[in-house]
Specification:
This protein has seven helices and six strands, in the order H-E-H-E-H-H-E-H-E-H-E-H-E.
Length: 174
């Protein structure tokens, strides 16, 4: 029966701006909880600030397992952090199964990966390398703000890949 007051701020997908935004929410707006954040890099920068102030941090779009690992390493400090989204390790498992099934169904042998250069992506790329081994013939990494992926796509095309797996959370290439 209590009313909630929502306060909005923008991190601009930038860790430093995220810390500034969170500090404003905590110390000026005096919020009781913080909900949101899409970029893992920003969440990793703001997580310590939020939990040190014993406020709930309900992350809604971050995927880096490092955030949850902080809870495992130091539960008493990080017990205020909650994750509502699959982490990268879980995504990797499902993405590899899907790629493997698709390659088997369509009798394809080689896969290329285009992935943004972001912390959440690292476990996925590592898992693809480990699980698919020499079936992975190209890995191209792109900036989260890239708008033209033609060079990377050309490299993947010349690699002989039958399948391209895109691991992107931003609008890279659009």
């Amino acid at each position: 029966g209590r009313k909630l007051e929502l306060v909005f701020t923008e991190t601009e997908q930038n860790p430093e701006k995220g810390k500034t935004a969170v500090e404003r929410l905590l110390f000026v707006d005096k919020v009781d909880a913080i909900i949101g954040e899409h970029r893992s890099e920003v969440a990793l920068a703001v997580q310590p600030v939020i939990v040190e102030n014993k406020k709930i941090f309900l992350a809604t779009g971050t995927a880096s397992p490092l955030l949850s690992e902080n809870v495992l390493k130091d539960y008493n400090k990080y017990k205020y952090y909650f994750h509502t989204f699959l982490n990268s390790n879980q995504m990797a498992e499902h993405m590899i199964k899907q790629a493997d099934d698709m390659m088997a169904t369509y009798k394809k042998k080689k896969v290329a990966i285009v992935a943004e250069t972001a912390v959440w992506v690292e476990p996925i790329v590592a898992a693809f390398k480990k699980e698919l081994g020499d079936k992975v013939v190209a890995i191209e990494r792109v900036s989260t703000i890239a708008r033209d992926l033609s060079v990377e796509l050309s490299k993947m095309a010349s690699s002989g890949a039958d399948v391209i797996v895109a691991i992107l959370a931003t609008d890279a290439g659009l």
